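Protein data sheet
==================
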Amino acid sequence: MARPLLSILLVFAITAGEPSARATGSSPLGVVTQSAGANINSSGVSAGATVFDGDYFTTTATGLVRVRAGAAQFYLAGHSNLKLHAASGGTLAQLVAGTLVFSSVKIDAMDVEVAQAHIRPASDQPTVAQISVAGPKEIDIRATRGPLQFSYKGESKIIPEGSAYRFVLDPRDVDIPTSPAASAFPGRKATGPSGHEPTGFLYFIIGAAGVVTYIAIDEALESPSKP
């Protein structure tokens, strides 16, 4: 009886002495600065929480979470899913659903991935952008401050400051006439990255670059160099 009990106690002692997986992982990516109705890895998260490589964020319909990560910060709106990874010089944010607003001051500080497409600052200057998943292969991108670079399957497109586009990935697999972007601009022909027949993606102008929620008014997002 004493021997099994001793074995159990040894197991508990070894387990208690092992640090958590997050603690033994890579260096922290950033810190949560604001949170409401949000989870990190299926658990509630509050301001001050440390963010690590591989952390997964979800928000409720009215939820939000804001994270500062190096030379960038981002704001995740309601009904959104996002996974973070460390990247060379910055952070890779994989947006699965919903809307993300990010600000940065360096070209490699933030790389947003949506359905294997990538959106990042086009230069080393203050940049503010809003990215929304509009459908399985549709992405709305608004360049509020500074230009952006969109890339997919070896092709790229510069999004000028003050403009907004809807990108459609793999257009040959998508029924373009039913796209909300297409119906909003009847008679406007979709164009590919080179202005010719679309291949990997096409895009539509969808209007001014003002973000659809109040998050772009936040002074901290408009001044990414200020914590």
About this structure: The two ends are 59 Å apart (CA to CA). The helical segments are 2-17, 21-24, 180-184, 219-222. DSSP finds four helices and 16 strands in the chain.
